[in-house]
Amino acid sequence: EIQALHAAIGGVSLLLGEDLIQCSKIPTLPPVSFLLGGVWFNLTAQDYVIQIARGGVRFCLSGFQALDMPPPAGPLWILGDVFLRTYVAVFDRGNLTGGARVGLARARSREAGTQGGGPARAQGTGWRAG
Which first-to-last residue range defines the signal peptide (predicted)? Predict the structure, then answer.
């Protein structure tokens, strides 16, 4: 799944499972969306491309990385820092009637400071590019 996602966003494989992205293509890269609990959560290229500057040189890496987890535990996705920088997660493990749950909402934009999204309950997985 990660290889297909990297192909969709133009990633070039490096060692250790990381993919290089052309920094100049960030404005034209497609959004990547995850379907959780019947709600689509969208990540823009600015959300999922990690930009690094070292010694006057800038390079960009995909924030998505493969984790080889064979069945029956896998395949699985870990929605880590790339997702959690963009969405606020509230974990409710004390719900005695409905079981543990997670609430997700769009985090405030650093630039805008006031934008945010409404909450959504999440269960399940899926992804799409474009």
Answer: none
